[in-house]
Amino acid sequence: MLGRGPKEIFATGRSPCVVALHGFTGTAGELGAVLGAVGDAGYAVDAALLPGHGTAVEQLQEMTFEDWIAASRRRVQAAIEAHGRVVLLGYSLGSLLAMQIASERPAGLGALIVMSNALTLGAGSRVPLGLWARSRRVMPDLYLLKPRPGDLVDRTHEDRILTYDRHPLRAALEVYRAGARVRRVVGRIACPTLIQHGRRDAVCPWHNAVGLPPLLGTRDVTVALYERSAHVLGWDGERADVAREIVALLRRIA
Fold it and tell me: pLDDT per residue over 121-133, tens digit each?
């Protein structure tokens, strides 16, 4: 593992409960600063580990999008039963899971927050993964080392990002393929949606943020671009602004 910090984040509080879904190879600690602000504002938080994360990277290599979505649906349903209403917050890989679930319109879903969305990946990942996907071959048991915990402009809090030190490529191919799958269903999303993205994101291009609203089934959409931030919005230099937008949405729909 790289970095330090919590693997999961939970907070008691009032409705709506924010069910947060973290990124690929990461943990809920990637969202620690913004989820702390949500908890401080009095709202409940449920940010559990996705399958294959926070344990051993070899376990993540065997996971599929279906594994992640099934676990996420269970968390959302449990939060709805406990709190009545939820807001889905998805970051990177988690954004795909959150959009998939929002498209299913579960009772009790109040809003959607899409952070650093992964509908398409940066060229450095998209091109080789796309070529491999078109080859229809099974990805071997390969790993790509990560040079640092995350893509940030302000690296002051980089060590607060708890994540694996490598990317399992077979599981990464699942993320690549999920982008096209989720794009086909986002037109069913009907709830208020906040889209947040760093303009300097090298993992998932910021064009994902401005290209998403016309695809959605709701017109209640806010797009917030952060000029001095990269992929890990929850810990980059404009994290206070990111958190402020989220809390404002929670107050609007509460």
Answer: 999 999 999 999 9
